[in-house]
Specification:
Length: 428
């Protein structure tokens, strides 16, 4: 089965004004929908981050891949990255210098290739990854401090489904709405927005509201000093399932861990910031900087690489969870398949999916359904979804006509909330 064409379509979809360490989510989030066409008449689909710079990277990569064997993902990866040990100058995409963008490009194409291969063979993607070890994949409620508004602009504005959440009461209300709507059994709060004492208050309020049976996580994206990280770890001892990226560097995470253990606090530290590449795992282990790694197939180089990460985490006795960015149903199903096929992925996965809207979905049949906080793992061929081409065209048109070309939370924060805003690490 040969690749006859690859299309990378940039899209924009409505996104509510969610707060994080970097600023405020813009009214539209950007993604890229990738279609790989084959000479068997079968297409596969993938989804990844969006924006013009990534478009350039796809434009550089695609011509080199057309005509290649759609089943030989290894050869396609080598084409994009060069063979191991090869000098960087030999790589085929001189403009695409940073590893992260290459991983993003490859991961979307890899998912599309697995989708196409699955359809050709009559097998679900999880079977191509070695087989599923669970029939449902648990996801976590992913809460954000949030201003009023549902996303979109003008006549394209969305309803504000969850309302504002700017204090502990607002966070508990949002958590309850997520649990009522989706049945989530664990909760993560995106922190690093307000002074740590207020965010600790929100975690205590959720613990009081939902009890020990609902695991809680807090993720300030490295917004704290070591001293603050230790203070929060001590203050929330016994309440947190894990503390995610309290500090922003490997050494500061290690120092936080050392101090907490010294004080008898064993809350694990998790990361999707200081360990985002295989090369960083050994250092994290040596320094005991993190105990849980958040996978993300978009960033770690695809579904196969995520499976491999799972195996490595078992070897090092790291826990494995999953990170998310704003995404639609193709990514959600890719996440579901790889989580189902990765035995060591035992934590409920992050997902932004509840923040998006049915009218912005690109898969047929509307939104992927959650039951008891979980997505059922499909056994139909490929990812188990079909594309709604009309909606894809509509979302692409919105990208083309819109003004957002790269995600820029900091600028939107300055424009809408605080003209003096700056996302400095170790703000507190
Ligand atoms: Mg994180």
């Amino acid at each position: 089965m040969k690749i006859t064409a690859i299309t990378a379509t940039p899209i924009a979809f409505a996104d509510p004004p969610l707060l994080n360490f970097a600023g405020l989510h813009q009214p539209y989030a950007l993604r890229t929908i990738v279609e790989v066409e084959t000479d068997a008449g079968i297409s596969g689909f993938g989804e990844v981050a969006g924006g013009d710079r990534l478009q350039e990277a796809f434009a550089q990569a695609i011509p080199h891949l057309v005509g290649m064997d759609a089943f030989n993902r290894q050869a396609i990866r080598q084409k994009l990255f060069g063979t191991e040990g090869t000098d960087d100058t030999h790589q085929i995409m001189p403009g695409m210098t940073d590893q992260r963008r290459r991983e993003l490009v490859y991961s979307a194409i890899e998912v599309a290739l697995l989708d196409a291969a699955g359809k050709a063979l009559g097998l679900p993607v999880h079977a191509l990854l070695g087989g599923k070890v669970r029939d449902t994949v648990d996801f976590s409620a992913y809460l954000f401090y949030k201003h009023e508004g549902g996303g979109g602009i003008g006549t394209d504005a969305r309803d504000d489904v969850y309302g504002p959440a700017l204090d502990p009461d607002g966070v508990v209300r949002q958590a309850q709405a997520f649990i009522d709507g989706y049945g989530f059994k664990s909760i993560k709060l995106k922190g690093g927005v307000f002074p740590p004492e207020q965010e600790m208050e929100a975690m205590r309020a959720m613990h009081a509201a939902f009890g020990d049976g609902v695991p809680l996580r807090l993720d300030p994206n490295g917004a704290w000093t070591v001293e603050t990280s230790v203070r929060v770890g001590l203050g929330l001892d016994g309440i947190l399932e894990y503390l995610e990226d309290p500090a922003s560097t490997m050494d500061d995470m290690a120092a936080t861990r050392g101090e907490l253990v010294h004080k008898g606090v064993m809350t694990p530290l998790a990361t999707n910031m200081v360990v985002t590449r295989f090369e960083r795992i050994a250092e994290a282990f040596e320094k005991d900087a993190v105990q849980i790694i958040l996978s993300d197939h978009h960033i770690w180089g695809g579904l196969q690489a995520t499976r491999e990460l799972g195996r490595i985490c078992e070897s090092f006795d790291f826990g494995l969870s999953m990170h998310s960015n704003s995404h639609l149903g193709i990514s959600l199903m890719a996440m579901t398949h790889v989580a189902a096929a990765t035995p060591s992925l035992t934590y409920a996965c992050d997902t932004h999916y509840p923040w998006q809207f049915a009218e912005d979905e690109v898969i047929q049949g509307g939104r992927v359904q959650f039951e008891d906080g979980a997505v059922r793992v499909p056994d139909t061929p490929g990812l188990g979804i079909e594309i709604d081409r009309d909606n894809l065209a509509r979302l692409h048109e919105r990208y083309v006509k819109g003004s957002i070309r790269e995600r820029d939370d900091a600028s939107y924060m300055r424009e809408r909330v605080d003209p003096a805003f700056s996302p400095d690490p170790a703000r507190w």
